[in-house]
Write a structure and sequence with these properties.
23% strand; Nucleotidyltransferase, domain 5; alpha/beta; 2 domains; globular; disordered C terminus; 16 helices; five-stranded mixed beta sheet
């Protein structure tokens, strides 16, 4: 069995799989909103309440792992722990209390794992073969990662041309901008747009879009939620979302609906989405800015990410230099 834990700024996620003759089967999984990065924008530290919430989730993850025999286990933390001045202390406490040895990874490592998680799209013919480039973006709780990728369909491989990390995600952007008016939404939009233009200046992606050579891969809760709204799902169905190919215009229309719901007080969305709109809108502003700069027509929705990338790399022994030193340690 293999296990991967992703401690993000907003969520704590665990995935446990078994492997039989190269085929993977999900044994157990866990996903809890912990908001570890709540208040980080103002204080530069993880708050006591956020650490306590997260510790509860990590104890639960440890209980799922304890007693099982693993070929490998790898646990990572991302933007909140990269940025917080007290992250090292918190992770030391996590190791002491739960036995989970969590490594803080760089933005590039985060991008590489997200790409590895989406690699099977090349094998399953999810991506359009007439387009040689992909722009992958992962909207997280504390940061947004962007990868500019060349696709080699003949060899079923991809080449990472460049990557970029914007230090804003749904949690930190919401704290930075008070979303009280439509103007606040466009302030978020303008802020993100100014950041992603730096990446465009280096890689000239717009020229490839004009040549119709680019498609999006959207890896985030924001994009999967927008797709779920589009499909009018009463209950989220991952099987119907993961690998779904859409027109970006469809997602932009959903964003307009969300803005109407928030600022014109129209009764459009179900209660399930109304409760999440405060966290959805920052993610929408990030996607809106990305798409405005890079108006790609096609998007593949990916309900996968770092956990899946870790599993993919472990099962092909590409993480062997990491997990020997970053594994599950049970304190007796």
């Amino acid at each position: 069995m293999f296990a991967a834990l992703d401690l993000g700024t907003n969520n704590c996620r665990l995935l446990i799989v078994s492997s039989d003759r190269g085929r993977l089967r999900i044994v157990d999984h866990y996903n809890r909103v912990v908001r570890l990065g709540e208040g980080l924008y103002e204080t530069g530290q993880l708050s006591q309440a956020a650490m306590e919430r997260t510790m509860v989730a990590l104890r639960h993850c440890a209980s799922k792992i304890e007693g099982k025999r693993f070929s490998a286990f790898y646990a990572v933390a991302t933007e909140a722990c990269r940025r917080a001045s007290n992250a090292d202390h918190f992770l030391s406490q996590v190791l002491y209390e739960t036995g989970l040895n969590i490594k803080v990874i760089s933005p590039r490592e985060e991008v590489e794992l997200a790409l590895a998680g989406c690699n099977s799209f090349l094998h399953d013919n999810v991506l359009k073969r007439n387009k040689t480039k992909a722009l992958l973006f992962d909207i997280g709780g504390g940061s947004t990662e962007i990868a500019w990728v060349k696709i080699d369909f003949a060899r079923r491989k991809y080449i990472l041309i460049g990557c970029f990390s914007i230090p804003v995600g749904i949690l930190t952007l919401r704290e930075q901008f008070n979303i009280a008016t439509l103007q606040n939404y466009y302030q978020m939009f303008d802020f993100v747009l100014s950041k992603v233009m730096e990446f465009e200046a280096i890689h000239r992606i717009q020229a490839e879009i004009v040549r119709n050579q680019v498609q999006f891969i959207g890896v985030s809760g924001t994009i999967t939620t927008l797709a779920s709204i589009l499909l009018n799902q009463n209950k989220y169905n991952r099987a119907a979302i993961d690998g779904l190919s859409l027109q970006t215009a469809q997602l932009k229309e959903i964003i307009r609906t969300l803005l109407d719901q928030k600022f014109k007080e129209t009764e459009i969305l179900s209660d399930r989405y109304k409760k999440r709109i405060h966290y959805l809108l920052p993610g929408c502003a990030i996607f809106d800015a990305i798409h405005t700069l890079w108006p790609v027509n096609d998007i593949v929705v990916a309900d996968r990410g770092i956990r899946d990338g870790i599993i993919a790399k472990m099962t092909t022994n590409k993480l062997r230099n990491y997990y020997k030193n970053h594994h599950y340690l049970l304190n007796q």
